Amino acid sequence: MPLLEASSLETYYGPVVALRGVSIQVEQGAIVAVLGANGAGKSTLLKTISGAMDPQTGTVRLKGDEIQGLNTWDIARRGMIHVPEGREVFSHLTVRENLMMGAYTRRDRDAVAGDIEMVYGYFPRLREREKQHAGKLSGGEQQMVAISRALMARPDVILLDEPSLGLSPLLTKGIFDIVRRLNTERGVTIVLVEQNARLALEIATYGYVLELGRVVLEGSAESLRGNRDVQEFYLGQREAGVRGERRWKRKKQWR
Ligand SMILES: Nc1ncnc2c1ncn2[C@@H]1O[C@H](COP(=O)(O)OP(=O)(O)OP(=O)(O)O)[C@@H](O)[C@H]1O
Ligand SMILES: [Mg+2]
Does residue 195 line the site of ligand 1, with CB under 6 A? Predict the structure, then answer.
């Protein structure tokens, strides 16, 4: 049984359809990348899975239980935390207070202090900044706060929406290294939405490609890295001579 399974999700913004029957499976311990161009539906998929939006139809199962329609708080308590696009930190709270907010679903208050030390171990920068207001931090530091706050809930699964957005290549690499370590060292399962397909497929075990609200391709990260359409459209390895042919092939295969 997969840890997380979304089946035939259809999600709307008013009359506008954003997911047109999306199904994904996430095995325990996996890092699953969700790739796709602007507007493909990646963020909507994470919002629908995390309870921030309700699907019109379809199911979401976490550890076998149906969770669609539950709110984000209930879903967080069941072990799945969403780090939304644009790293929403509480700007007027300090770094430490932000981390404490992440533990709000937990009953084991005594262990919380130890977990703050644990996240400072991953992000030493946050220890230096712990008394500063989160709104005063750089974009990279805010992303660290957002991920750390998620960790404070001791989640089984983290849904990460574009952690590299607006970060320098160096900071992005640092964040991705830590995502990988959280997966290997702490066994956190990760669903990673990312426009930087190259980076995402470096750390992912499996991936899905979304286009216009549909899954058009899926497979092991290795197979996606080797896929010529992925190379052309998402890894930037365009070969002028074969572009037309690939477009045509893609249409035929994916639509
Ligand atoms: N609040 C909204 N109201 C109406 N339509 C929306 C809203 N948010 C997203 N959409 C539409 O839903 C579709 C999917 O958007 P979504 O944000 O999920 O895409 P995305 O893959 O995350 O894109 P990006 O890479 O730009 O973050 C798009 O057509 C978008 O215009
Ligand atoms: Mg998005």
Answer: yes
